[in-house]
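pinging the channel bc i need a second pair of eyes. not urgent but kinda urgent?? the chain im working w is below, pasted from the shared doc
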Amino acid sequence: MEEGHAGGHVQLVDLAKRFGGFEAVCGIDLDIPPGEFFSLLGPSGCGKTTTLRMIAGFERPSGGQVLLDGKDVSDTPPNRRNVNTVFQSYALFSHLTVAENVAFGLRFAKATREEARSRVGEALSLVQMQEFRDRKPHQLSGGQQQRVALARALILNPSVLLLDEPLGALDAKLRK
């Protein structure tokens, strides 16, 4: 697949999120350079997913800032950020094939049919799912579904790729 967009520098400055009286995220400061593989570790309910949702733009912080490449995007909607996310539930479209699921975002990017076909092939090759391109999600294992979701997230070459519980369903061979 072609190289992603330049950038990908993620900074969190005193980032906080409250749900009513419950403080889910309390003043996180992080500086993640471009190209870095970074993991948030902690017990269930400690705010890892909420932090990812704020970086992606699905949750608005109660305080602090989310900076992408030095720009404050705390109030920027998800579709205006060059960030893709694979959440615990892969949200694959059951009525679409693997290839159609992977190509879904290219519709909005106005890719030509030939460009889409080529990029889908590259993405499926990257996650070792080429032979499953015509199957529906219900015909795949959990690990295979996760690889389809990963290919769909990577096909648009995001500056930042967020993975929530990323390795849980992947087989050992693909983790390498």
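so The chain has five helices and six strands. and The beta strands are 10-19, 22-32, 63-68, 71-72, 83-86, 160-163. — does that match what u expected or am i reading it wrong
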